[in-house]
Structure to design on (355 residues):
């Protein structure tokens, strides 16, 4: 998923830098601003136990799948419902269930009625976040997943795998420039393609992992491990309004929505890390309370905290150091990007080896 601040293209830099500092071969890795789960997944693949967290529920769903799921899903209780599952190899079952959901007939539900052109045409705000067909299909699949869960036909692992699959694939056909703060007037080419349930595959391994959906400031005292990786927002852009539709698909809670973009309330999901007046206090709070041996922080040279502030705060825990790498900027939209001065930014990886 194309996500603000995603570290997908920086994984090599993170891996080489972190292994230069950390002496242990395997460790418990805390990814507490997990977003898409790309970093946690990478360190899971390297054989580590991962604890992931994020304030957003869609991120929790993605991480429940990519991080916590670590063995093939059998979908045993769906055998009565889906013929082709009977006798199918365990490794094929997740794909078989996705195929079944792919063939489901669309229905006019919350997404279609609030975020598709046909469904909103007589309302104060007509919206076109998805094609009509994709909106209906998303509603039908989302409702089916919830029905199966309610009837006890799928377990939590299977539930989060299916939800993550829906979120990932629905994001691919969204009619936006990238984030959900606005939709495009005309259906762009990728949004005209039919929604397809391509399985959201996860790394198989033997370790037990854990995923939380909390504010890091509340969670920090409840978790412990060896290496804590922090990747907070860098600027004033809050994630909740930019990804409100992913949140609604993940929760499917019929929220009250408002305005041109159909925004849900996010007053309890505002991050202090995106508020200039709060960020230093909150950062110092988590750094001082972390129960870990090493702390790493990704940040860039245009963030709300200065390099000096970060160094001052992290140095209080032990021996401080810094890695840097040039990195090309996240492009939400080529046109709105014109305000930015540089086309690449300096990415910093600060660290402290705790005393
Ligand atoms: C820069 S992104 C992380 C990107 C991630 N490393 C990746 O590669 O996808 C920052 C994340 O922090 C989350 N976040 C912001 N404030 C938070 C808080 N106080 N507690 C927990 N998560 C928070 C946001 O929801 C967002 O997903």
């Amino acid at each position: 998923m194309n996500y603000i601040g995603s570290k997908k293209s920086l994984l090599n830099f993170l891996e080489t830098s972190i292994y230069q500092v950390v002496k242990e071969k395997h460790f418990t890795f805390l990814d507490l601003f997990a977003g898409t789960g790309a970093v946690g997944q990478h360190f899971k693949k390297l054989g580590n136990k991962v604890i992931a967290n994020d304030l957003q529920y869609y991120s929790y769903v993605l991480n429940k799948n990519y991080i916590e799921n670590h063995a093939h899903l059998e979908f045993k209780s769906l055998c009565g419902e889906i013929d082709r599952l009977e006798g199918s190899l365990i490794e094929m079952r997740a794909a078989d269930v996705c195929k079944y959901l792919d063939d489901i007939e669309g229905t006019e539900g919350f997404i279609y009625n609030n975020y598709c052109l046909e469904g909103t045409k007589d309302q104060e705000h007509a919206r076109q976040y998805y094609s009509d067909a994709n909106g209906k299909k998303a509603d039908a699949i989302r409702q089916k997943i919830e029905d199966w869960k309610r009837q006890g036909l799928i377990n939590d692992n299977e539930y989060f795998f299916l939800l993550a699959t829906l979120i990932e694939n629905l994001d691919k056909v969204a009619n936006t420039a990238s984030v959900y703060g606005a939709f495009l007037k005309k259906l762009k080419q990728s949004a005209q393609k039919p929604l397809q349930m391509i399985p959201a595959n996860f790394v198989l391994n033997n370790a037990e992992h854990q995923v939380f959906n909390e504010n890091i400031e509340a969670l920090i005292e409840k978790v412990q491990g060896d290496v804590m990786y922090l990747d907070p927002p860098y600027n004033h852009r809050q994630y909740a309004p930019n990804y409100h539709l992913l949140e609604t698909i993940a929760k499917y809670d019929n929220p009250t929505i408002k305005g041109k973009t159909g925004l849900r309330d996010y007053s309890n999901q505002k991050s202090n890390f995106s508020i200039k007046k709060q960020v230093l206090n909150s950062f110092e709070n988590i750094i001082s309370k972390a129960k870990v041996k090493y702390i790493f922080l990704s940040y860039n040279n245009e963030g709300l905290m200065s390099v000096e502030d970060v160094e001052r705060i992290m140095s209080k825990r032990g021996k401080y150091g810094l890695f840097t790498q040039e990195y090309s900027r996240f492009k939400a939209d080529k046109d709105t990007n014109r305000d930015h001065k540089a086309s690449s930014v300096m990415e910093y990886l600060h660290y402290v080896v705790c005393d």
